[in-house]
Amino acid sequence: MQGLIEIEPKQFLEFDAEENKLAHAQLSLKNLTQQDVAFKIKTTTPTLFQVKPSVGIINSKQTQVIEISTSQPIKNDAKFDPKFQVNACFIDFQDQDLNQFWKNKDQSTIQSQQIKSRIKQNIKQDDQPHQQAPESKIFESNQSISQQQESKMFKSVIEPKAENDEQIKQYKEQLEKLQQEYQDFRQKMEFETQQALLKKDKSNLSFSQLLLAVLIALIAGYLIGN
Per the record, a Pfam family (predicted)? Predict the structure, then answer.
């Protein structure tokens, strides 16, 4: 098929099989040439599949998507190995009866490629990750919660201690300040008390001296008068 069309998928056509549902698959045909190309798709089990379209024309550089579905549900564990054959060749006129065109076409001018088919094993494979995913999420969630709790516990042990140490330091500084103010106030009071006592002593001494002087004067006056 090289040189005319590019087929995707190239080897296996995979069908999605679900219980009690028809299986589906897609086949993509791309015209790689500068001319129009006719195609025809055959299968080894034509009664099992519906191919739309099974014949057609692909314009230059264009792509044709083929929808293929089963005519009945397929069990996931059933034996499934039909084959598809894609035929392609150049066509000169589009307004032709394609069925008649393929009957009269020389086989030597037709390029063919066979593609195998199989059931896509996505049900059982997907179940396991879905079952594992919650456990993984639960583990990650528990681990995250555990880390958060450990972080909170660590902070509850470390941070209050640091906070208490800071408060104790502040209290000590305030206490030392109060003690210093008390000492200053006490020294000031003692000094003022001493000053008051000195003033009182001086005033008492002056009064005594005055009395003594008056007494001496009286005695001297009396002696002089006599």
Answer: Motile_Sperm
